[in-house]
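Researcher: I'm preparing a figure for a lab meeting and need a structural model of a single chain. I don't have an experimental structure, so a prediction will have to do for now. The sequence is pasted below. Please return the structure as tokens so I can convert it later.
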Amino acid sequence: MSHLKEKLEEIEDRVRTIGVLTSGGDAPGMNAAIRAVVRAAIGKGLKVRGIRRGFHGLLKEEIIDMTTRDVSDIIQRGGTILQTARCKSMLTREGQQNAAAICKKYGIDGLVVIGGDGSFMGAKAISNFGVNTVSIPGTIDLDIACSDYTIGFDTAVNTAMEAIDKIRDTSTSHERCSIIEVMGRGAGYIALWCGIANGAEHIIVPEIHDFDEKEMIADIMAQKMRGKKNYIIINAEGIGDSINMSHRIEEATGIETRATILGHMQRGGSPTCKDRVYASIMGSMAVDVLVQGKTNRVMAYQGAQYIDLDINEALEMKKNISDYQYDVAKMLST
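Model: Understood. Here is the structure written out token by token.
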């Protein structure tokens, strides 16, 4: 009888229906993750329900059944076919409780959340109300501390790099100083990587607090005296003020200076091979984790391995710009 009881409990606890949503800012490669979740789950005999517009859509019950045909021909597309939105209601206990209740109403006993730290907090809250959750890091900012990789960063940084190469061409032709503002409100990884990849003379990121504009202007003047004809400054969105900065540099140096804000073009476009493959593996593994009966987990890529971590452990981790990488960028710019 005890053996039979254990079997019945195992059947009762088994995940039968998986929900999937994308939350926060969109990132190239999210569609690859959605596709992997849907096909991996259906391949295991599970039902899949897609939730439109993230947690906002969950609370509005914008929930659809998904088949393998629904995710055909999407792996190469940027953005997210499920769409995404911010949701202030998920910051409240009532909103979290309602979200979990709606999952249960639609039979969703396993939920895959694709997004950043804020999305992870939402997943954690729903898990506390009895819904199994697994989160996948999806953000172009590369600012998820538990993972060396986040969906969308590779595409975004390559998009920015190619744009900056083009700006360098015209900056050289006109002997200008060009300030290029890239995305990254609280994280300077896109700025740092582009600074190294594009051979920028200066990189300004929110993590480095000793930035001195007067010192940068003095360095531009010194390089001008040595015969340098153009200058590239990569400025992270979290610092901002690029247009006013360009006016100050031009006034102080006499060098024609232009500011270019790349903006949301960095979020769009067809994902790179890396973003397609890594997102696909993480999506598939998220389903495996739920089938194993785990909950409150985060997928991560560490040391060339795909792993899952406890969400509390993941959220406690801190991440910062590597001092060595930043020093290398400065050294190579001289």
